[in-house]
Specification:
seven-stranded parallel β-sheet; binds magnesium ion; binds 2-succinylbenzoate; alpha/beta; five-stranded antiparallel β-sheet
């Protein structure tokens, strides 16, 4: 198919509940939506779920905006492109910038699935009729509040809970949650807040029967994670350190962890996410789908990829209502008793509420084949 136009939207949304990790607290998100058009009038939506600040990864809303505008989208507009591989080849020279990459790639997958009249999940090779969804809960002011929040989501039927931890907020809150819910599948995520000097503190977490400890050490480390894994009974799960399927292979070869968190955005797209899944599946390594507080478009893609057979652990893909009072799809993506059904309709499986997206849009650009510049504002909303 020929890509005739790309629209780039910066869309702001406010979280229902502020979210605090070891690095910072956030209330608002500034993700980018990418819409690609083909010459037959089809469109595909993608989401670049990039954080506003460079505290989780080096990318930010601003860097993703400029990389997509100047270095990625212009290479595909006007081109005949017949596969995600081919799409990615057009801007393969761009190093890193995986969040930006994944947004454009997702839009192409959505377009491809729409044109092929197939559900995205099936195109990716998914087999599950529903995914099991957990919740990721931020750092709270005190343990009593955390227990209230955990209680709220357990009552909603979420079968697995992840707690954010940091030095000074680890053993105490974990012990309190474990005491209240002795059998709850529970895991923790440090977002790189610890060093090898904290080994004895981290080892204390071993006694709580956690499913895993996610990314305790440096965002760019796999070597020291292997040392810490060797000292722990609890499996280490890698998030920040893994940007490609090759990174996952190297980490697993080094025994830097026993579980991989697959995030489409961090891996630069659904194709690399699938490759990472396939590698782990072949080695018997469990994976689960991580999240970046995606809006409905990115969430729909997460549901699709998480339906692949190797996603044997509950993920961080919760219902829209955990994040937003109103999401950007016409029908919100909801979890019932901790399960989200995998759509069987063509494309993403969820329609975008364009009027609402427009209301939430901070800035918009559109560029058509043949044009040598982007057009501001209204052009992005033309049919
Ligand atoms: O480390 O998994 C993480 C959110 C933003 C940045 C990093 C992470 C997270 C989450 C939330 O844990 C997952 C979600 O519910 O989308
Ligand atoms: Mg994480």
């Amino acid at each position: 198919m020929r890509i005739t136009r790309v629209d780039l939207l910066h869309v702001r949304m406010t979280l229902v509940r502020g979210f605090e990790t070891s690095s910072h607290r956030k209330n608002d998100l500034n993700h980018l939506l990418i819409r690609v058009h083909d010459d037959a009038g089809h469109v595909g939506w993608g989401e670049c779920a990039v954080p506003t600040d460079p505290y989780y990864c080096p990318e930010t809303t601003e860097t993703a905006w400029s990389i997509l505008r100047d270095f990625m989208a212009p290479t595909v507009i006007g081109q005949e492109i017949d596969s995600p591989e081919e799409l990615l080849n057009h801007f393969a020279k761009v190093r890193g910038n995986n969040f930006a990459r994944s947004g454009l790639e997702m839009a192409y997958w959505a377009l491809l699935a729409t044109v092929a009249e197939q559900p995205l999940a099936r195109m990716l090779g998914a087999t599950r009729p529903a995914i099991t969804s957990g919740v990721s809960l931020g750092i709270e002011r005190d343990v009593a509040r955390l227990l209230d929040v955990v209680g709220e989501f357990v009552a909603q039927g979420y079968p697995r809970v992840k707690l954010k931890i940091a030095p000074g907020w680890d053993v105490l809150p974990v012990a309190a949650v474990r005491e209240r819910w002795p059998d709850l599948p529970l895991q923790v995520d440090a977002n790189s807040a610890y060093t090898l000097d904290h080994l004895s503190q981290i080892k204390e977490l071993d006694r709580f029967g956690l499913l895993m400890i996610e990314q305790p050490l440096g965002h760019d480390d796999i070597v020291d994670h292997a040392r810490i894994q060797a000292a722990l009974a609890t499996p280490i799960c890698l998030d920040e350190s893994i940007h490609t399927a090759e990174d996952a292979r190297k980490a697993l070869d080094l025994n830097a962890g026993r579980i991989i968190n697959i995030k489409t955005s961090r891996l630069g797209g659904l194709l690399e996410a699938k490759k990472t899944h396939d590698l782990c599946y072949a080695r018997g390594i469990p994976v689960w789908c991580g999240g970046m507080h995606e809006y409905g478009v990115g969430r729909a893609a997460n549901v699709a990829i998480a339906a692949l057979p190797g996603f044997t652990l509950p993920g961080d893909v919760s219902g829209s209502d955990k994040y937003y009072a109103r999401d950007i799809t016409t029908v919100p993506i909801l979890a019932t008793d901790g399960a989200i059904p995998v759509p069987t309709t063509p494309g993403l499986g969820y329609d975008v509420d364009e009027e609402y997206v427009r209301a939430q849009t901070v800035r918009a650009l559109s560029r058509s084949a043949g044009a040598d510049t982007w057009q501001d504002g209204d052009a992005a909303w033309a049919d």
